[in-house]
Amino acid sequence: MKDYLLGLDLSLYRALNDFCGWSPILDRLAVHGASLGGALFMGIISALWFSPAKDTTRRRQTIVIFLVAVALSLVLNRAFSTFVPFRYRPMYSVGAHAPSFEWHADQENWSSFPSDNATYLFAIAAGFWLISWRVGLLFAAFATYIATSRVFLGIHYPSDVLIGAMIGITTSVAVNREVVRNLVAGRVLALESRYPAYFYCLFFIALAEVAGGFPTTRHIGVAIVHLFVPYDDTRHHRSPQPISLLLEAR
After folding, report:
1. Sequence-ordered list of residues with C-beta below 8 angstroms from that of 10, at least 6 positions apart, any chain
2. Cis upstream peptide for 230 (omega within 30°)
3. Cα–Cα distance list, 118 to 65, 181, 203 (Å)
């Protein structure tokens, strides 16, 4: 069964990656599509936060909690990845077709399994779903597009994004409970009415971190890790190369 699943995973990866380089339009959609995520996320959050519809308090509580859930889902993803065997990204292990233009993969030298990108996006989609199924479905479609693009470009196997998505959805749904909303989000929102200027300053800083995939937080985290792990540690490292040099040999 294990061999069958691994073979299926590889077959699905190759089926998608075979289209890479076939069309410049597809290639650019795959490479640059993720840049739309931050704007889409911020636009939806703003619309939901300031919407005049009923249940404003509950809606804002859910937003606060699912922002926490997104961060927690990424922590769980990285923790889980340390307990499973390290997996090189497919572009480095089995090769990948190159896009039709020069492109360099930009990611940390972390295990491919599970995909933190999928975890992050689907945790957000699940959070939106808890507020509005239409908004959740919209962002889930975007998350699926980005996750598929990662496979298309050779950054992840299909199983990487599937398990990552499951971690994100499960965490977001599990954390968003009535008791948590009242205990945590209720206290946070109390600050909004008492200190609105300070609240929105910190709130938009937090939103910027989430919208960008926690860039500052990740850099600080990596720096802390490298206080204990040398930068030249090669156990989990494969030197990055231009994707044009990583064509698959079949």
Report:
1. 94, 157
2. no
3. 19, 25, 24
pLDDT confidence of residue 3: 73
User: Which of 97, 70, 67 shows the shortest CA–CA distance to 167?
Assistant: 70
Beta carbons within 10 angstroms of residue 16's beta carbon? 20
pLDDT tens-digit series, residues 108-160 = 677 889 999 999 999 999 999 999 999 999 999 999 999 999 999 999 999 99
Counting DSSP H helices and E strands in the chain, the numbers are 12, 0
The Cα–Cα gap between 172 and 210 comes to 14
Question: What does the block give as tokens for 149?
Answer: 């693009």
Q: Which residues touch 158 (CB under 8 Å, ≥6 apart)?
A: 9, 12, 13, 16, 151
Residue 242 has pLDDT above 70, yes or no: no
User: What's the rounded Cα separation, in Å, for the pair 211 and 217?
Assistant: 12
- Give the number of residues written for the chain: 250
Cα–Cα nearest to 186, from 96, 57, 71 = 57
Say what the pTM is: 0.84
